[in-house]
Amino acid sequence: KTTCQLVLTFAIREVFRTRNKALRRRMKELWDHSAYIAAACFVLSMQVKGSNPEEALLAGLVHDIGTIAIINSSDRHPELAADPKSLEQTIVCLRGELGALILREWRFAPAMIVAARDAEDWRRDHQGAADLTDVLIVAQFHDRLRRKETEGLPRIEEIPAFTKVLGENASPEKSVAVINQSEALVDALRKVLSR
């Protein structure tokens, strides 16, 4: 199962391609983002009892598959490709549901489908222990902080995923410490994924 997930991980890299020269930069940014999220998910999942880091890594890579479809379809809609603001609005509105549809069609596990759909549902709450989506939400939050894109982000204590992933004593400091302690692993994973 792990071997299959790793092969799929490297095959996914080929999906992040576009023929449209103007959109290549956006697709590269998306790949860099997905590689960071995948690495962060891998590291964060080690904090969750019973979690599978390889599965978390794969979830991080495919969580924005809906965005890839939108970027690639903009080849057929040049007016959308020529207007970056409209393209980004379209992505924000459609990426989650479209990603879930694609992963369902590709017969991904239900947990992966939910993770792609709810990756930025900051207030998502559910019964039970942390799941793949919780790990992905925490990774997404870290990435937004890292890129200084904090507009619209709730406070950490308003995000149930943090407590589920990091425990009752979850705090911004503990969250950052987990990522910082694993920085070498995150960097190594990102380098492998970016080849």
Description:
With 195 residues, this protein is mainly alpha-helical. The chain is built from eleven helices and no strands. The chain has helices at 2-12, 24-45, 53-62, 65-73, 78-81, 84-105, 110-117, 132-146, 160-166, 172-181, 183-193. α6 runs antiparallel to α7 (110-117) and α7 packs parallel to α8. The radius of gyration is 16 Å and the shape is globular. The model has no long low-confidence stretch (mean pLDDT 84).
Give structural attributes.
66% helix; 11 helices; 195 residues; mainly alpha; globular; single chain
Described by the principal axes of the CA atoms, the overall outline is: globular
Helix content: 55-70%
Radius of gyration: 16 Å
Class per helix and strand makeup: mainly alpha
Layout of SSEs?
Blueprint: H1 2-12, H2 24-45, H3 53-62, H4 65-73, H5 78-81, H6 84-105, H7 110-117, H8 132-146, H9 160-166, H10 172-181, H11 183-193
Summarize the structure.
By secondary structure, this protein is mostly helical. Helix content is 66%, strand content 0%.
